[in-house]
UniProtKB/TrEMBL annotation:
Pfam families: HD_5. SUPFAM superfamilies: HD-domain/PDEase-like (SSF109604). It comes from the Bacteria. Residues 436-464 are annotated as: Disordered. The keyword Nucleotide-binding does not apply. This is HD-GYP domain-containing protein. Keywords: Membrane, Transmembrane, Transmembrane helix. CDD domains: HDc (cd00077). Residues 263-385 form the HD domain. The lineage of its organism: Bacteria, Bacillati, Actinomycetota, Actinomycetes, Kitasatosporales. The chain crosses the membrane at residues 7-26, 79-100, 121-138, 158-178, 190-212, 218-236. Gene3D superfamilies: Hypothetical protein af1432 (1.10.3210.10). Residues 241-436 form the HD-GYP domain.
Amino acid sequence: MGPVRPSAAAYVGCAVLGALLCVAPLPELPVPWSAIALLAALHAGCEQLPLPRALGRSRAGGSPTPPFGRRALEGMGTVYPVLLAGAFLLPPAAAAFVPLPGALLARVAERPSWLRRGWRAARLALAVWAASRVHWSLGGRDAVAGPHFPDALLTAGAAVLAFCLALTALDGGILTLAERVPARTAWRGLFLRSLAPVAVHGLAGLMMAVLWRSPYGPVTALLVLLPMYVSCWVFAQYHRERAAHQATIRALVQAVDLKDGYTRGHSERVGQASMMIARELGLHDRRVEVLRFAGILHDVGKLGVPTRLLRKDGPLTPEERRIIELHPEYGHEMVRGIGFLGEARSAILHHHERLDGTGYPYGLRGRQIPECARVVAVADAFDAMTSTRSYRRARPVAAALRELERCSGTQFDPAMVRALIRALDRHGWHPVVTAEEERGNAAPPPALPVAGQPAGRVPGGGGA
C-alpha cells in the first residue's frame, strides 16, 4: 500500500483524540487497578498469540485485504471476549483503557506502523467504551453481580449491539478514506458480518464477568478463554489450509497462462460459469467450490503439450491433433495427488467427453460421464463462444445459449444447459478480463471448435 491519504490520517487522529477523551476520567475513578491491569495484560497476551489473521486475498485471488477496517474485524478471536468482559465489569473509562496496551504493542507489518497501531487502539477503545456505557446505563453491573437472568443477557446483548455499531461506523469511515471504497458501499454488510461472531464472543465475555464476580474469582474466569482459543486455533488451521489450496490453484493457472497466454482469463471464467451452474443445480456449497476448482483447472494439462502446437497458425495434422487431445489425461495426472480437489480431478479428465460418445479421451456416453465433467463441458463451451478471439468476435450470450441448446442431448447434458440459462437469466454474465484485453495484438492460434462446429479443429485455448 502507498502513503496514507491525509484525510485518512486526520480521521485516525480524530479517533485517537476521541479514545483519549474516553479514558481521561480514569485517574479520578475509584476502580480496582488490579482488575484493569489483569484484563489489559490478558488482552495484550492474546494479541501475541498465533491465531487467525485475514488471509489477505479474496476468494478469486484478487487484491489484498485492506490494512484498515476489515482486517481489524477479522483479527484475534480471543480478544473480544476479554474486551467485552471488561465492558461488563468496569466503568466506561476503565473499560476503554483495557485494549490500549495490547493494541499499541501489537505487531504491525504495514507502514507507517505508528498510525496503524494508533488506529487499532483507538478503534477498540471507542467500541469498548460504547459497550460499557450502554451496559452500565442499563444497570448491567448489578445484573452481572447476581447474576440476574435474563436481565444480564439483555444488558449484555445491548452492549454487544453498541460494540458492533461502533466498529461498523469506524470501519466504514476508514474504508472510505483510506481504501477509497465508495461511501455508498463502504458500510454495506459490515454490521451483519460482525454481529454473529461478536455475539458469540459477548456470551463468552459475559461468562467471564459472571465468574469473575463469583466467589471463585478471576482465575476461573480465565478458563472461559480455553475453549475460545481452541476454536480459534481450529479456525486458523482451516484458513491456512484454504490459503494453501488457493495458492496451489493460482500457481497452476499462472503456469497455464504463461504456456498459452492467448486464453488468459479463460480458466477463471470457466470456473465462474461452472460455479453458477452448480448453484443453480442446488449442489452443496462444498461441491460448488470443487466445481469452481474444476473449471479453473480444466485445461491444466496444456502444460504437457508442446507450446508450438498451442500457438500454431493454421490447421493441425492428425498427429498434432492426437497430441493435443492428450491434455485431459496430462491434467488428470498432474492433479492426481492433490486431495482437496476431489471430484474436480474427474472433471479435468472428462470435460471433452460428449453425450453421444464421440468425445475424448475415452468416448464415454451419457451418464457414464461424471456430473462434474458435464458441468465443466457446458461452461467451457459457453466461454469459448462468448470470448473475443483475435480471429473472430465473441458471440452474443443469447446466440451462444441457442447453440448450446441445439447441441443438447448429443454433445451437452440438457440439464446443465438449462441450469446455465436459468443462472444467466437470474444473475447475468459478468466475466473477468477477456483474453483479447490481456493479449492485445496477438498472433491468432488455430481456430477452436465450439458447439456444433466440425471436429476437425482442436481446442488450443478452450472450447467444447
